[in-house]
Amino acid sequence: MTSAPLPPPATRRPGPSRLRALPATLLKGLWLLLTALPFVFMVMLSLKSREESYSTSMWTPPRQADWSHYADVLRGPFLSYVWNSLFVVSVSVALTLLLSSLAAFALARLNFRFNGPVFGVIVAALIVPVHVTLIPIYLLTRAAHLYDTSFALIGPYVAFSLPVSIFLLTEFMRQIPRELSEAAQIDGCGPFTTYARIFLPLSRPGLVTVGIYTGINLWNEFIFAYVLTSTPSHRTLPLAIFDFQGQYSSDIPAVLAVVTLTALPLIVVYIFAQEKLVSGLMAGAIKG
Amino acid sequence: MSLTAKPVAAAPSQARRARRPRQDWIAVAFLAPAVLILAVFLIYPLIANFRLSFVDWNGLGNTARNVGWNNWLELSRDAVFVRALGNNALLAVLSILIQLPLGLLLAVALGRASRGSAFLRIVYVVPLLMSSVAIGTVFRNLYDPNFGAINVGLRALHLDALAQDWLGDPRFALLSVIAVICWQSIPFYMLLFMAGLSSMPAELSEAATLDGASPRVVFWRITLPFLQGTIRSAAVLSLIGALRYFDLVYVMTGGGPTNASELMATYMYRTVFSGFNIGYGAAISSAMFLIVVVVAGLALRLTRRYQTEV
């Protein structure tokens, strides 16, 4: 809005426009409350002593922050869950990016029979619900003696991340100018060199987006981790809440301390890389 | 990029194809690792699951017994499965009716650039980063009939009559969980619509505003038609997501009380991993797969037809 001395045009009068923005402002404020309140309750309750959690209402802030639950949780096997999550997620994301970029290069640039149908099948795989594969994968994992190991999760995690990453990376690589690969060919580069030296570096933004999307999904993955592992030394972070709940069943502040601690890593990353994480989340918009 | 993107879009022209030599075996080398993983962990399990649906097996040793179509016959008469399917359908309808409009409203509200909007968008997205187990655990405490923040708040406002056993009462369990599912998913649709809005040329709404159109008219006549492609994709995503939903229901109610919030996926899970009825569980999940495929096919077909008509 300009500060011109002349009376501004009718549509720009401040009064009505602020009034018109009122519903939007209300909506934004209401949603802010709805989003923030559960987190406020979570943190408040996790900082209360056990006695205080019984004797005071959920709405009253703790008299003084009691960090003992956090200390207890961190002394337990919690860090083992964090380590397992880091291991499983980073290996799975790395494998997903490698395998899907190889496949995407073939689908985007190589001239071969059944290119269309292969791509079609991979896109169709997007709608397969993970639960349909749960029983056979459970039996397969047991038969392969991988049950309750970190490795049990990597296969299913990569398999369920591949369709969406291949789809996204193929679309991405199709936009890389054909002249570049043709020039490389003339210079004597074989297909693999063209992939490694030209397509992989040029696809970096796509790889980053796909990697973030896959990483967030797998970091929070629940059902495979729940079914394919059973002991804290091999389970991932979302399961920490489940296992601690069994242990501290009636100690609600301790359980909520675990929840807060499991939520923390991703939120910290988010604070430092908001735009990247949001673009990664958006990549999932095509996930059927 | 949309759900309906066609694989043939980038096929090289005839002339070009003729010039370039076939690279069949090279392509096999590039595709083999991905295809191998997909074959072992996705395609084989899909087929194996169908085969398991024809046996009776408790999962121990070689005691599996072929029972033909028995599991499927039983499934067609199973009141719990029908109820679960109905719950999935309710979840789908409410997801589309609640998540999409609220996501769109938030996107439009944040679209009016102001200093606060960037900050708000950051906060709104946080639930998307949390695991379902974390969210489910927090909300189970908020819903607690005695000390939960919701009932305590209602009583403080002297609305005791509204205080319910949100997750323990069969009348409210499913709706209470659906509210949390919406809470978590709405920011996703907000982001989706914000992305759609950002590709809308600003001149479009500016010109209309100069012509004297009110923001309401601009929304209905310009913004909404512009976003129809995004809205269609969002509806299909939401629909398919609802049919195969599992996480928050399992964490918050486990499908109970007395199947009141049962979904197809939670029913399958309980049948297999608590009831040790592998064959029947496989039949439930195979049926779920067929339902998802048919509905997704119909939805994509319908939305594509509308696309060509409009």
Account of the protein in words:
Chain A is built from 15 helices and no strands. The radius of gyration of chain A is 25 Å and the shape is globular. Chain A is an all-alpha fold and 288 residues long. With 310 residues, chain B is mainly α. Chain B has a two-stranded antiparallel sheet. In chain B, a hairpin with an 8-residue loop joins strand 1 and strand 2 (65-66). In chain B, helix 13 (264-273) packs antiparallel against helix 14. Chain B starts with 13 loop residues before the first helix and ends with a helix. At the A-B interface, helix 2, helix 5, helix 6, helix 7 and helix 8 of A face helix 2, helix 4, helix 5, helix 6 and helix 7 of B.
What can be said about this structure in brief?
The complex is a heterodimer of chains A (288) and B (310). Chain A is mainly alpha-helical and 288 residues long. In chain A, 73% of the residues lie in helices and 0% in strands.
Radius of gyration of chain A: 25 Å
**Overall strand count of chain A:** 0
N/C terminus separation of chain B: 19 Å
Question: How would you classify the helix and strand content of chain B by structural class?
Answer: mainly alpha
Spatial strand order of the main sheet of chain B? 1-2
Content-based structural category of chain A: mainly alpha
Q: Give the biggest beta sheet of chain B.
A: 2 strands, antiparallel
The portion of residues forming beta strands of chain A comes to under 5%
- Tally of helical segments of chain A: 15
Number of helices of chain B: 14
Low-confidence stretches of chain B: 1-18
User: Hey, which two chains have the biggest interface?
Assistant: A-B, 100 and 106 residues
Shape of chain A: globular
SSE run of chain A: HHHHHHHHHHHHHHH
Task: Bin the helical content of chain A.
Answer: over 70%
Shape descriptor of chain B reads globular
Q: How confident overall, as mean pLDDT of chain A?
A: 86
Oligomeric form: heterodimer
Mean pLDDT of chain B comes to 86
Question: What percent of the residues of chain B sit in helical stretches (DSSP H or I)?
Answer: over 70%
Proportion of residues in extended strands of chain B? under 5%
